[in-house]
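Hallway conversation turned thread

IA: we were arguing at lunch whether anyone had actually written out Transmembrane protein 161A end to end. Turns out nobody had. So, for the record, here is the sequence (496 residues) and right after it the structure tokens. Reply here if something looks off.
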Amino acid sequence: MALMGIQLVVSLLAACIMQRMAPHYSFARWLLCNGSLYRFKHPSEGELCALAGKQMPKPTRKDRRQNGESKPLTVPKDIDLHLEKAPINALDALVLRFFLEYQWLVDFAVYTAGVFIFTECYYSSVDASTEVNIGAIWCVLTVLFSLKTLKTLMSHYFSSEEGGERSVCLAFGFLSLLVAMLVLVVREDYLEFGLESAFSSLFDNLEVFARQQGYAEWSIPVTKLSVKLGLAALCAYIGALLAFPGLRMAQTHLDAVQMNTGRPHIQILLHMSFLSPVIVMILWVKPIARDFLANAPLGKTTVTIVSSETFDSLRLWIIVVLCLLRLAMTRYHMQAYLNLSQKWVEQMKKEAGRIAAIDIQRKVTRIFCYLTVITLQYLVPVFLILFSTLALKSLGDFSWKADADQTPGVTPALILPIAAPVLPGGFDEDEEGMDDMEEDVQATVAHLTEAFMALRSVLTPLFFRGFFAFLTWWVAACQVISSLFGIYFHQYLMQN
């Protein structure tokens, strides 16, 4: 298994380009600042006074309170206020909350996609079955970084003084724990994740690896039940992380559909994008998906529409296309969120009484400042499904081509590189130093090769198939639960 190959060179090159190009060109910055999104400017106090039909008051001593602060300017709520639009530029983006986290994660996801496409082309043209798949490592890192970003956003909600957001996260966490425990006891005849085969493969390989290391009496200290309980706890944590992204997705979906009332083709795409996690869930329901296509009932006989291998490839393609559809709908959802400023103003006009000018300015500004937070809540679940699927394809030995042999591969035998012998005499001190350095590099590569091979002998493609299939399905399930609850909340509870 070669470590110092072309894949590693391309990986280091991509990391270098990402670091060098980030200050000059960033896909994340272009996504918000390409001129297609516009924000609403908050009105000044002079504009509010003009709309209210009075002059700007001058501060006097009589207007001072006992604490030394001036009396806030108030205007009627029913004033004819219309917010001014302005396209978002790079300077505006600098004031956004969590902008650096957003820029780094989105750019990393873009470069991960590039590295993955290169490794797929490399594997299709060269027999590199014994090499480390660098593209799969990038995909796994993107999944981990996405979860870390969601954890950062959730910690922001937990630090809120009101505590309502904290209760929502905890409630969805306990609900996810209950649902995960129910899902994990469903038989493979209904949900075909392959977790049973994955756990069996993991335990068997661990015992073999322990015996090879000289631990003859060593046994697995845990059981499948304890592993499933740990997996259920992880599912509860992911469910808590995806609570607010799903709720926000529901609100932006309703607003985006309403915003594109006169464009039925865009509305159809928005509905397809919203229902895409449901399709992802159905793809792993065996009686509905695989059995219907591979063993379709026709009277007393069954007809095979597509083979089992073709269905595996088709499922990967469908998930990737659905993720790309959601990414294509990003602009409509983000503009629907930005339109909340004008929507709030229209709602304010229907109310009676007066409101402080600073409250109007603060509300309009706050909606824009949280744009990157909303963008992360929209994009991160898509990244989780997309790159979990790509990792499933690479680490699970699947194929993009239909009718290809997709049997999980067997770990090859460990072959350590043999260092070239050093011939005595005929070398000066510099050449001997270079030879010593080369021997050290070869020894390091040999140790790393042995470590990766040992890890590969334990974590086989059969294990990765079960784990990443379940992870992909679970992220989609969490989105369905939270987004449907968000639809019910915004469509019925908020109106009542």
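OS: looked through it. Residues 409-427 have pLDDT under 50 and may be disordered.
IA: good, adding that to the notes. Residues 461-493 form the longest helix (33 residues).
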